Amino acid sequence: MHELAVTESVIAAISRQLPDSRVAVVHLEIGRLSGVMPDAVRFCFELAGEGTCVQGARLDISQPEGTGDCASCGISFPARDPLSLCPCGSADVLISGGSDLTIKAVEVADDV
């Protein structure tokens, strides 16, 4: 399950930047073509986050669609597969979106 390694990397990156903070919310963007399963990341986040600055934090995940750009006809279209064909039938397609995993924002808790 590579989602555990991905989740541990996300937590490590946040912990390096906010070592003395308590994180309330982590906003991740996991592209639909990334090969990363959001439900598995949610499961791993709770387990891997124990004892770190993200322990108890809420994890919000958005999943942008993939985008394909056709070199033959020049259009951009929604790509549902990493090997998508253009609606014009061409296979000369560059996938330009939907394959990234990005930490979009981290909200730090207001401790009183």
Spell out the key features of this protein.
single chain, 112 residues, alpha+beta, hypothetical protein PF0899 fold, 3-stranded mixed sheet, 3-stranded antiparallel sheet, 2 helices, 6 strands
Task: Describe what you observe in this structure.
The protein has one domain: hypothetical protein PF0899 fold (2-Layer Sandwich), CATH 3.30.2320. 24% of the residues lie in helices and 31% in strands. It is built from 2 helices and 6 strands. The protein is elongated and about 55 Å long. The model has no long low-confidence stretch (mean pLDDT 94).
Report mean pLDDT, rounded to a whole number.
Answer: 94
How many DSSP E strands? 6
Kindly report the CATH topology: hypothetical protein PF0899 fold
Strand content: 25-35%
CATH classification class: Alpha Beta
Largest sheet: 3 strands, mixed
If strands are numbered along the chain, what order do they take across the biggest sheet?
A: 2-1-6
Tell me the Rg in angstroms.
17 Å
Give the helices and strands as they follow along the chain.
HEHEEEEE
Task: Report the helical percentage.
Answer: 10-25%
Detail the poorly predicted runs: none
Structural class: alpha+beta
Coarse shape: elongated
- Please tally the helical runs, counting DSSP H or I stretches of 4 or more residues: 2
Describe what is shown at a glance:
This protein is α+β, with helices and mostly antiparallel strands. Helices cover 24% and strands 31% of the residues. Helix 1 packs across helix 2.
